[in-house]
Amino acid sequence: MGLKIIVAGKGGVGKTTVASLLSFFLSSRGKRVLALDTDSVPNLALSLGLPREMESKIVPIVKDESLVEERTGARPGESWGLLFRLNPKVDDIVDKYGIRISENLSLLVVGSIDSAKQGCLCPAISLGKALISHILMEERDVIVVDSEAGAEVFGRGLAERFDHMLCVTESTQKSLEIAKRIARMGRELGIREVTYIVNKFSGDESERLRISETLDARHFFIPYDYSLIRAEIEGRSLKELDESSPAVQALRSAFESIFG
Ligand SMILES: Nc1ncnc2c1ncn2[C@@H]1O[C@H](COP(=O)(O)OP(=O)(O)OP(=O)(O)O)[C@@H](O)[C@H]1O
Ligand SMILES: [Mg+2]
Questions:
Q1: For the chain, which residues make up each domain, given as ranges?
Q2: CA-CA distance, 172 to 175, in Å (whole number)?
């Protein structure tokens, strides 16, 4: 039985961190994981440990103008007044453009499929949506999507194909409110399970109580942990972080409870 997980939340809360550690966790359990980066500024590859020289050469699918043209019949930006294919061929894209991170883990950098954020790139957006739709319908062990900040990215037609949303938030009232809004939207669109990840948590007990009262679904607290930032500064994969990282430990045990 396949598992399709979308990691969502507002900007900078830790979506990419959670998506990469979840991908490592599930792939180390023997699941075959396909991680999708659908951010307009993709950076999941670095967190998954791809060397910077390789990462800098990745062209997100929706930004690959010749691929977009080959598959839709129109170049990005050329959509006005042009007809383009709404059902482009996508079934070979994972095999051709997927990047193998380890035996059980592959990455596909799709880029943003949010037309509002991309301006008018209709052929590219249509290719991206067709691709994600295809991937979500295929039989796979696990799909982990690192999504763009916000919630609207996966509207009706795609959202309901996910089994689970991990909604990442920080402890501030504003962040919690946004997380609840994103979670509500996910549920309304048909995502069955929503779990909050309260990231960068201070450890303060009264704060923990306040947060637990605020949130309307199962949630896990992940401590603030400078070693994540240090790994990022040093350009190291999050995989190299071990049991000495409190955040990694807490996330592993959260994943264990949710998916184990
Ligand atoms: N538990 C934590 N403790 C301390 N720092 C953290 C923690 N989790 C994530 N960070 C740091 O917070 C920053 C943002 O994390 P990340 O890139 O995962 O967020 P994001 O939600 O994907 O951001 P964006 O919206 O820009 O894609 C990074 O520098 C990351 O190292
Ligand atoms: Mg991110």
A1: 3-259
A2: 5
* Residues 14-45 pLDDT 10s: 999 999 999 999 999 999 999 999 998 999 99
Local structure of 147: helix, strand or coil: coil
Surrounding ion ligand 2 within 5 Å at CB are 15-16
Closest C-alpha residue for ligand 1 atom 31? 229
Closest CA to 203 of 168, 239, 250: 250
- What's the gap in Å between 24 CA and the centre of ligand 1? 17
Distance from the alpha carbon of residue 84 to the mean position of ligand 2, in angstroms: 31
CB contact at 8 A, 125 and 62: yes
CB burial class (10 A; 0-12, 13-18, 19+) of residue 99? Answer: middle
Q: How would you classify the pairing of strands 164-169 and 193-201? A: parallel
How far apart, in whole angstroms, are the C-alpha atoms of residue 164 and residue 192? 6
Q: Phi/psi zone of residue 202: left (φ > 0), alpha (ψ -120 to 50 degrees), beta?
A: alpha
Quick: pLDDT tens for 63-86. 999 999 999 988 766 655 567 777
How, if at all, do strands 105-109 and 99-102 pair? antiparallel
Would you say the CB of residue 14 lies under 6 angstroms from ligand 1? yes
Q: Token match 């990047």: residue?
A: 99
The yes/no answer on whether domain 3-259 falls in CATH 3.40.50.11720 is no
Give the count of beta carbons closer than 10 Å to the beta carbon of residue 259: 17
In short, whether 12's Cβ falls inside 6 Å of ligand 1 is yes
What kind and span of H or E run contains 201? Answer: strand 193-201
Which ligand sits closest to the CA of 251? 1
Cα 239 to Cα 245: distance, rounded to the nearest angstrom: 11
3-state secondary structure of 52: helix
